[in-house]
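Supplementary Methods S3. Complex input for the uridine-5'-diphosphate-glucuronic acid-bound model.
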Amino acid sequence: MKIAVVGTGYVGLVTGACLAKVGHTITCVDIDKNKIARLKKGIIPIYEPGLDKVVKEVIKKNKLSFDISLKNVLSEVQAVFIAVGTPARKDGKADLKYVFDVAKEVGETLAAEASRRRRQDYKVIINKSTVPVGTAKEVTNIIAKYYKGEFAVVSNPEFLKEGYAVDDFMKPDRIVVGTSSKKAKKIMQEIYKPVKGKKVFTEVQSSEMIKYASNAFLTTKISFINEIANLCELVGADVKEVSFGMGLDKRIGKSFLNAGIGYGGSCFPKDTTALNQIAGTKGYDFKLLKAVIEVNSKQRKYVIDKLEQVFGNLKNKRIAVLGLAFKNNTDDVRESASIDIIRMLTGVGARVKAYDPKANDNAKEILNSGVKITNDPYEAIKNSDALVIATEWPEFANLDFDKIKTLLKKPIIIDGRNLLNSVIIKKLGFQYYGIGRA
Ligand code: UGA
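Predicted complex, serialized as structure tokens:
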């Protein structure tokens, strides 16, 4: 099927490339001319394992092309995915400007085409961006304002994890589609036929809610285990043992039970805040979600509290921070706990040297120049008073800790991701502080 995907961020690019890989003919559209020019050459603007290989392969097979305007491709395609950003506004609401801009362009272009050709084929507009319940209706209204022909707006939320997005797309736990139109359902079935995974068809509003509810539930798991971790420290338990024991219960499940310095990224913080906003606008007090958000922001302060317990005042203390990305396997630093912690450290006068295997460049753009970012982990550690692990990159666990001990002024490690084997690290003579590990 010929399909357009509007937006070439993480979601749009992965969706476009993977749909091309399974046999569809895709045009990815973005208004950023430079980005499109680079993509045409197969240059990917993000670090996402496996994505560049897929993109290059499908470009070569003429299954994926790029354009700077939806107007150029709309008449050719049967379906249009909207995968543009919905950033959080200051009041926490999702900013739908970009989604509505696309809707307007679809409406205007369909109308112009219809009057030129005196007919227009049935189109399905698929919303992949994370949007409040009711947005599909609004998008429908915008398009209908301009175009009087037949079309359907479908909700199809994405559940991709950065760093694992290609795999998540190819082998999803489920594909959720919200539509009440039989015709649109048939087209969606055809689009996803080559992708294995359970297909769930719901009403549009339910589908929109599934996305927010899923992210809110995952963050609830994280904040819950972080609270348990804090309590573990007080009662002398080890949260790693506790979460392992809990996770074996199939009703609980072992994933998303890793205690640490809290969740970050471009989705969880934004989506939880937006869901809280949605509840508020309906006059509903979502107490649990509010607590999840509060626990998460408190958790980031853990590192500062621990360091202050050890050193008293942090002024002029040299702290090495390993990890800048919001999690491993990505170069993304949006809402990263590490960045927040570095800002808190410099805010109390500490001097920070930091290293990340992939996110150094992105971090440099947002951190002030006083923070030294190094291309080598040992360089960051050299002559520091303490080492903080802020991102769960597995390679940090394989560093040479004998060497690290000689490089640090004091053998102090704050493991914000419980990444290290505490027994071994302590045997090496380190003063080790994990999260929830008495
Ligand atoms: C998340 C969801 O996992 C995806 O299903 C969803 O599609 C995506 O948001 C989205 O809405 O677009 P992502 O933000 O890529 O994906 O990252 P996750 O792997 O979920 O991690 C999010 C944060 O939670 C990271 O900061 C990570 O360090 C933290 N985390 C995760 C924990 O602190 N503990 C855990 O046990 C798991």
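The two ends are 57 Å apart (CA to CA). The first helix runs from residue 10 to 21.
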